[in-house]
Amino acid sequence: MITEAADGTTLSLLYHLNSGAWGRGGVEFDPNDLPARRPIPDPRPIVLDGAGTASQVVALAMRRLSCRQYAPRKMSLATVSTLLQACYGVTELRHETVSWARWGRVVPSAGGLYPLEVYVATHSVEGVPDGVFRYEPAEGYLSSLSTCQRDDVEQAMFSPEFIANANMLVVMSGTFAATQNKYGPRGYRYMLLEAGHAAQNLCLTAAELGCATLCLGGFDDELLNRALGLRALEEAVFYCVAVGFDEG
After folding, report:
1. In degrees rounded to 5, what are phi and psi of residue 203?
2. What is the pLDDT of residue 95?
């Protein structure tokens, strides 16, 4: 069993092996003691042919391409609204008390807890000043983060030249306690999965609307968390997606 981290890569493996199912504790892991491969009863491949099946989702997935050169075009507020609704919008009111309400969302979430926050750095959006906003899905509006500028978010990226002229930089963060209070260390995995669901929704909807996207994991966590005013031990950025119009 791996018990101490010699480097960053080992640390991530150590976390993964020790965030298994509840009550299982650590995982005994010996890289030299792997199970033998099971024999394949029939070596002939099975050909998958989906050509006869019409699927709008598959068509959109085929159109989703990463864009690294955006055109200097304006984006409508209606397009921004649709993209954010697809990313992390609400679907129904599931529970309400005097002090709080729990809404369903367009993505699956462990325990229905929805620990993500969505921030949007805008550029050249009709009727919206360039700036950074937090998406408030239940209320259906953007609230301004007056202390943060679009450049602060852009410069936290390792390759800011790839996202110049993108109309939206959608940044997803997670509030750790929201999920880990219930699921322990495994809750961190669940938040990453949820961010992936939200990003794919965003990318497919962008393809439907004729927009281009670039999913970004290459950013300076410390700079980006600080720019958004996040206390990294409580809430931290996981993922970023640039959205705009392909220069090509």
Report:
1. -65, -40
2. 64
> What is the phi-psi region of residue 210: left when phi exceeds 0, alpha when psi lies from -120 to 50, beta otherwise?
left
Residue 195 · residue 239 · CB < 8 Å = yes
Q: Is 212's pLDDT higher than 70?
A: yes
Distance in angstroms (rounded) separating the CA atoms of residues 14 and 188: 14
Q: What are the contacts of 94-102 at 24+ separation with CB within 8 A?
A: 101/138
Indicate whether 114 belongs to any domain.
Answer: yes
> Per-residue pLDDT tens for 106-115?
999 999 999 9
Domain with 182 in it: 67-244
- Confidence bin at 14 (pLDDT 50/70/90): confident
Domain count, the chain: 1
